[in-house]
Every structure is written in C-alpha cells, then in structure tokens.
Amino acid sequence: MTHSPVALRSRFRARTERLPDETDLLDHLGEGGAAWLDSPAGFVTAGVAASVAPTHAVATLRTVEPDPDAPAGVSARAVGALPFAGGGRLIVPASIVQRDEAGGVWRTVLEPAAVPADACRPIARRGPTSYRISQVSSTRAWEANVAAVLALVDAGALEKVVLAREIVVEADRPFDLRAALAVLRATQPGCVVYADHSFVGASPELLVRRTGADVTARPMAGTGAQAGELARSEKDGREHRFEGYTVAAANTGYYGGGMNMAPGADPSDGLLDVIFIENVSKARFIANLPKVFKGTHVELDSVEVHRAREVEISSDRPFDVYADGDPLTTLPATVRLVRGGLSILAPRA
Q1: Are 132 and 65 spatial neighbours (Cβ–Cβ below 8 Å)?
Q2: In the chain, what are the domain boundaries?
Q3: What would the mean pLDDT of 158-185 be, rounded to a whole number?
Q4: Radius of gyration, alpha carbons of the chain
Q5: What is the mean pLDDT of the chain?
Q6: CATH number for the 244-336 domain, one of 1.10.3660.10, 3.40.50.920, 2.60.200.40, 2.40.50.100?
Q7: Are the CB atoms for 303 and 289 separated by under 8 Å?
Q8: Count of alpha carbons within 13 Å of 345, Cβ hemisphere only?
Q9: Buried/exposed code over 268-307 (b: 16+ C-beta within 10 A; e: otherwise)
Q10: What pLDDT does 81 receive?
Q11: φ, ψ for residue 183 (rounded to 5)?
C-alpha cells in the first residue's frame, strides 16, 4: 500500500519554555483537548496546529522545526483516540504542556496554528448537582457472564478478561472534564488517566511505552458484550516481533526425528503451542541444540512459548515454511488448528 505525500501549507516552528515544577497540568488543558496522565509523567494539550490522518502523522511531525533549547523528549506530538475499525484523525496540538520523569514541566507551542491555544482556554463551569444512575445489564446477566468467562479461562480459550458493567449516568448539567480527570487522578493510583474530548477513562493496562526506538503496547485484545464474543473476536490476538532462528507452531510435542520442540503441547486442548527461538550467537545456539531432544530448551531465556488457536507469521524477507521437514509454502502464512478435524482409528486400550 502506498500513500500520497502530505500537502502542507507551511512548516511549523516550535517554541519551548520551562514552567514551574509545581505546575498542575490540568490547569493547561484546553477546551476539547487531550490528556495523558501517567504518574509522575504526563501531558495535556490545547488548540490545534493540524488535523491529520494517522498515516500522515509522522510526516507532519517531521515538518516541525524544533526549539534548539528544548531537552530531549520534549517536542511536538500527534494525539487522539482512534477507533478499532480504523480511520480517525490525530491532532497535532498548538500547545502541549508535559511533565517529564524527573518532574520538570515544559510548554511547547507550535506556530502557525489553525486554532491557537489561547482560543481554547477552559470554560469555568458549575458541576452537576443531581444525577440519575441506571444499570444496563441485570445482576443475573452479570453472573452468567462471570460463569461463562471462567469456563473459557478453564478451557484455555482466554488468558485474561476485564469484566465491566455498563451503567448510564444522567446529570442536570454537563460534566467538567478537568474536574473528572482530577478525581480519576486522585482515586485511581497506578492507572493511566486519559481524555480526548469527551472520551475519558483510567486504565491499569500498559497502553503504550517507548524505550528508545522500541514501542511496547499491551491493550486488551478483544471486546464484546457477551463472554462468547471475546473468543470469536477478530481482535483476539497479540503481535510479537523478534529476531531469531525459528518459529514453530505445534499440536504435538515431537517432530524432526525425535526433537521434543513443544513438550507442553496437548493435542486435545484445541490450542497450538507456538515456540519462538530468539537470536543468540551461533555457538550458543549449537550448544543448546541437544536440549531440544529433551524438551528442556523451553527453560532458556532465549525461548518463548505461547498458545493460540491461530497464528499469522510474516517476515522481513522471503522465508520457507516446513512441516516436519517437508516444504509447504513461503511466508506470510497462517497456521490454524481445527479442533476435532482429524479422525484417528486406534486400538482399544
């Protein structure tokens, strides 16, 4: 897939200044802005320098002329909440105020801006004085979902589930975004508190973490109103990237003349054992090779074992796929386990 280049009317110029360390980030959250509070670090935004498609965000940020006096990691960003179905827009804010891990607070302003930060100053509002709360699902439905989820976990179809009960809160006045974020920040320690316009929440999950050039994300893999929908969800998956020697998807333990590649594989559990052998020196790889015949290689730090009903495998160069030594195809490839798909004639015990 190719994308046409972004047509930009002008370059953006960034101006960064230090703010007092005791600054409350929420005081700088603009009307309709975004917030990401991950104690002690975080940021809030105000105004709009540009609105871009996600595929154009990096190209747009590259047109920003940074402030030469800004410390590392303090710069323009593209922010927004994107739908699972794809599409959506990201905002490059006109102003972003962020607190770094050391406690320093910095404000970066981009010029020119489509909507300057000064035009998005928060409006002082009186909060609601009365509420009406109603639950969408009944207690009986909730208990049935809990039982269904426990059954899926016992069967190995799910590893982790976060159950939620939907409620509707109606108030006599609009909620104040900054007040809601302040309450979440005070009452949900250890959570990432976030907002994008009226989309507000707090999550204990690792949403995203950047270490140098590496980005780690562990959002929930699937969503659904009923427990059974989670097992059928197209998002019921995790992506793993690594450099190494091999990826094996096995329904039984042995192949290749006695190699016990997947010692924990159970042909009756409806799951594939997926083994990653990561990149190590050739000498170490050869020295560890005898462990494969004993099945003890899975105890090595360079080996990971996962379980799944279906595995999609791709690589950055052409790569052959083999089944017990016989060539089948080339990557990318999908390996899927069809439960009960093979009938075996066996003598009576």
Answers
A1: no
A2: 1-124+176-204, 128-173+222-238, 244-336
A3: 86
A4: 26
A5: 82
A6: 2.60.200.40
A7: no
A8: 0
A9: ebbbbbbbbbeebeeeeeeebeeebeebebbeeebbbbeb
A10: 87
A11: -65, -45
